[in-house]
Amino acid sequence: MATVSVVNMEGKEVGTIDLSDAVFGAEINEHLVHLAVVQQLANNRQGTQKAKTRAEVSGGGKKPWRQKGTGHARQGSIRAPQWKGGGVVFAPVPRDYTLKMNKKEKRAAIRSALSDKLANEKLIVVDELKMDEIKTKKFAEVLGNIKANKALVVLKENDKNVVCSARNIEGTKLALPETINVYDIMKAGTLVLTKDAAEKIQEVYA
Question: Which of 102, 110, 101 has its CA nearest to residue 206?
Fold first, then answer.
């Protein structure tokens, strides 16, 4: 087990926590991490793009001029792709970009991402994150105290004051142990876990 320092909201060390090697000390599988990131980005795509082909553009039923004798190239419709206002060649159509990934692979990828953050000393455990009121400036000070940059903050459960205080800080994102994903973990400059959230993560992904 890895022993990690626990700090308070002022950035002072107040204790330690043992993190399970099964979750935070796993062998880093770069291939699974890559697959998980590609899957999430693909699944975020709406796939609603659409352009009309020459068969779908209105008008153009009449042949613009006779086939021969005009000196022009032969044309069959003013809605052909080479005409202004014509259809699009191989036009995009709505499609589903969804990719699938096995549950075991997803869990292994998350363990790899968590282990990578710990190995690179980009993981901070805070004893608790409590806010008496919704105050973005105060939460920004907390992040400054614990030296968390572009942080992914994981709480054990939703706290309205904390969530609302953090949502306007650029680069900062909040999540719950059950909703963390590989892309957000790898993108974050620092992974910030409350002590309760760290224990919950070990339960969920062990």
Answer: 110
CA dihedral 20, 197, 10, 122 (to 10 degrees): 50
Measured CA to CA in angstroms, residue 72 lies from 28, 68, 83, 86 at distances of 65, 8, 14, 18
Residue 140, phi then psi, degrees to nearest 5? -65, -35
Q: Residue 190: helix, strand or coil by DSSP?
A: strand
**pTM score:** 0.81
pLDDT at residue 1 in the model: 78
Dist CA 176 CA 197 (whole Å): 8
Residue ranges, the chain, pLDDT below 70: none
Q: What is the DSSP string of 143-183?
A: HHHTT-SSEEEE-SS--HHHHHHHTTSTT-EEE-TTT--HH
pLDDT at residue number 91? 94
The closest alpha carbon to 147, from 167, 169, 124, 164, belongs to 124
**Is 98:112 a contact under the CB 8 Å cutoff?**
no
- Residue 206 has a pLDDT of 83
* DSSP per position, 112-134: HHHHHHHHTT-EEEES----SS-
Nearest alpha carbon to residue 94 among 41, 45, 47, 57: 47
pLDDT at 55: 92
Structural domains in the chain plus CATH codes: 2-45+98-205 (3.40.1370.10), 46-96 (no CATH)
